[in-house]
Request: fold
Amino acid sequence: MTKLRLGFGLAAIAICCGLAKASVEAQAPIGVQEPAWAPDGKRVAVSYLDRIWTMTPDGRQGKAVITGDGSAIEREPSWAPDGNRLVYAADRGDGFDIFVVSVKNGVATGAPVAVTTLPGDERWPSWTADGRLVFAHRAARAASRGGDPSRQWDLSIVRAVEGSGSWQAPQALTATADNETYPRVSPDGTKVAFISERDSEDDLDLWWMPVPPAAVAKPTPLGSRPAKPVTASVPSVGTDGRPLRATRVVRVRGNEAYPSWAPDNVRLAFYAVREGIGSVWVTAVEPARPEGTEEPSPRPKPSAPPQLVSRKGGAPAWSPDGKTLLVSGLPDPQPVYNGNPLRNDVEAPPLFALNAAFQLWRVAAPLPVHEDGGLVTAEIAPSPTTFAAMFDRVWNTLRTMYYGAAPASKEPPSAADQWASLKEQLRPRALAAKSESDLESVIDELVAAQPLIKPVVTSNGAVVVSGHPLASEAGRLAFEKGGNVVDAMIAVSFALGVVEPEASGVGGDGSAVLYLKGMKKPTVIEYKDMTPMRATADNPLLMQDGRIVADGPAAANIPGVVAGLDYAFRTYGSGKVKWEDLVAPAIALADDGFILDEGLPSSIAEGRRFLEKWPEAAKIYLPDGKVPRPGDRFFNKDYANTLRAIQKGGADAFYKGEIAKKIAVDMAENGGILTFADLAQYRAIERTPVMGRYRGHTLYAGGPPLSTGIQLFESLHVLENYQPAAGARASTDADYLHYLVESWKVRDPLRRVADPERWPVDFEEHLTVEHAKKLFAKIDAKKTLRYERQPPEEAPATPTAPTPRISTGTTSFAVADADGNMIAVTQTLSTWGGTFYVSKGLGFLYNNHLRSNRLTAGAYGSLVPLMRSSTASVPTLVFEQKANGEEVPRLAVGCAGNAWIPVSVYNIITGVIDGKLGAQAAIEAPRFLPGRDPADPLENGERIEIEDRFPRGLLNNLIDRGHRFQRIGRKGEVRYGYAAAITVDVANQKVEGGAEPRRAHAAVPFDRRATTTAQ
Reply:
């Protein structure tokens, strides 16, 4: 899995010619990517709608190189040094292979010849001066469908068999534990630039290494190719006798991709992501250092820093005369949350981009700073069969991800049957589309009509919804033994610590909002983690490069989960189920193991570098030093033993008994600051919830130290002043979506919310009716608001060490029954994997919430000992207000997923109340996340991340009002925010569970008459 998800897409070429930029872009065809100059500079090869075309550099004489039906995906063309052949990567249905084709006047003169037929994928081919090819290879996925995060990209090289027209067996150039991608050979054939994860905690950096001299090898027939590139005949030294040692070109926080050499062989243009913004840079390449030598410090002749040449991000291609860069525009870099499982790594069609992405720009090379350059209009146009192929790829990808495993049936039609019917209805219109926008309209209709991905689960007894089917089943077993919603919640929590260990567990914390029949109002059980007694800014164990450490034993706060579950059991449990029975399912899962889906392997692959640093963590999560694969059975015997101690001794075993002693000893020996005294003093706390109101409903969520419920209710209070049309939904009503977004943006910042035992809190004004009306008055129905520039706080925060790709490690679950008893819970390790540290023999990961504390003395949330943490958690209970004043249970909801947590709960609540959606439909509804635009020069512009399930027409309506959107994921994909929801109908004795298709959530009913139906 390539770690950087940059997006792929379209490029259209145009020359500005004095026209307005918008009108020029509107004329440009969409679909061109990855330009490659012919050696004489007279033609350019591109991938246009995933087929190889050639054209003149100004876009004339566009020709498809190979005729076909468009079913194959053709990418990454590269010209041979003689200019008479093109190499490219093509997927004909069983993974990408490398092909070579002879070309004259821009079209093929014969059939393509397969260079590679290895299992897996071969991508990004590039010619050497002597006619060999360098490319990247990864193994075949573990399963026939779905993603496999354990697959590793490495570089290989292959040479032709002289005079035979065939190619030898590929030879491996690199075989590290790091992904190596995007190889590009210099024009003189001596160097290969590439992108690598090596020697980096979280970045993808630009490197180069010498091209090895040609080795003599016996021809290998294509039919007897090895399963992977061989390594025996690759020379270990270059033509100069020096070792083939890779050298880093760029070491800047961020990610690089798409290197392109200048004709002088000493400069590289490349795409980079800096602070979430794409751009194009040029840099000089330093000479290689001999093996074993260190970089001199200071350098005797410092290299010039990389030079910005375009603020439009894209893949550059340097012209042979060195004067021009063609840049195929890329979409805005996508935020990537580690919790998002790699369910499918097949690339989306190069369509549907926003913000002028995927267009080919001409840039003078180099310029100090380039803004727009010249758009190039290309004389190329798609055929109807190409549009049909694009439609088929969208349909097939969504079928594979969501509907392929569903059994076909006639009564009633299954989701798979409905999906097949939609293809029959809409494909003829895709075939008849006259333009890219026509095709997108058809595909938008396909996406809008998607059947539910997961079935609607209802019961006249109870429903358990959690992040894993095995954890939900543990909750069901608690009901089977006579337990209540609290008992089920405890069983779910312990089980999740085993099957979703990167998101929660006994080393983390949480918060639960609970209502039991007979209560006057809900209560909050708060078990947030606490800073240890030695957590002070002057403690050297906590600091690294002026920041609080983010991983390892010193990053851990005092865990709260076991205390919270123990308190819930003793105070609100049914008394009919023994504590031992609630822990037992988790012990069995840890002891006997369970079959992995894509979720945990995806998280382990993302956090591998951190896990490798700590032996006990690596032993469990990287068995045999490898990322586990979907379908493997995963064990955690040490965790099973820890749970046995908790099963026997309850919370005392963890905080005052044998586990506490082991934690204290391990921390003292390995640089942590947690002590036995820290653990012994910890208590869970029962708190009064904060309350909000929305359209005849009362809502309850946790208050300080949490602030998110207050912010959620403030936005709902503002939105209540807008009256939407009946059944309004964000994906169909532009006015409603505008007010949803603006009500989210307009609320005031909360600065005085932290641990109420350590800081005075002040938030009541934010929840008044008058305040909501005042904020609503700022909203313009026809124009978006810019964010207000906020004055600095009295004591500004000091940021912790950034970990942009390892995002919040959180899980959320809910349990409810038909009598209206309900509980919503959110638990977390802070980041996915928390500290990535495991104490010897204990098996669980610790939270790393310590890093979220500020270092500026006096600021709210600044680092002080024994302070409870604050997170984005917002488990919420919703009650409907009846005419007689009675409040009747209606909804339990919570969410995981970093910044997507509160806004996803907002989406679900408004979907249920305004959109009249059931729990499952509300969970699967398209989501959005408003935020500040990192590229806005005034630093107060808006950018709304949206799942690509909102139709283009609706988005255009909002773009006209000033909104700016960034599409997340592929067409029709449900992507971010991992929620659990249950709707309750007490009058009809019915509950409905909403399980998240964005991860492996499952709704499990407890009732012998429970029904499971697909809609």
